[in-house]
Specification:
179 residues, alpha+beta, Immunoglobulin-like, 5-stranded antiparallel β-sheet, 3-stranded antiparallel β-sheet, globular
Length: 179
Amino acid sequence: MRNLLGVGFFLVIGIGLTLSGCVDTPNFDNTPSIRFNSVDTLTIFDSFSQTYADSIVITVDFEDGDGDLGISPEDRSDTTKLNTIYKEWGNYEITVLEKQKDGTFKVRPVSVFDKLFFDILKRDGKPGPIKGKLDFRQTLPASRFAKLTTVKFRVRIRDRAFNVSNTIETDTISVHLEQ
């Protein structure tokens, strides 16, 4: 009886290992791809300045075939290199689109979105496909002259080989922006 249990145990382990070896590695393109997931906001009252500020979180789902998303803290600390390599924008580009009275959206420059970076996502450094969620968090500047404004965000990312993802737009939200 004991031998049958032992054989059964090893049979189950063997089948499990065989099946786990059958999992296909995803075949994503080396150019990153993103999809809109969510956008959230939390209004914060700053008791020192007696003003409101909005903290936003933009979440995108991503896929990348070679896993070269993000840059290291060391590379980010070299501002000369960053300004030479990442000229207009970092590896994360977010554009604010402000809703106009006629219902259309117009680009609204907001300096906290000028040059954005995120950390390396594949820590082992080995090339290979990755997918997941990327959260961007930012608090908008507080101002006594801010007005509740309807906006949405246009987002794209790029990898270390400078392959640029598709562009997505978020749902609309209301945030306090200086007029």
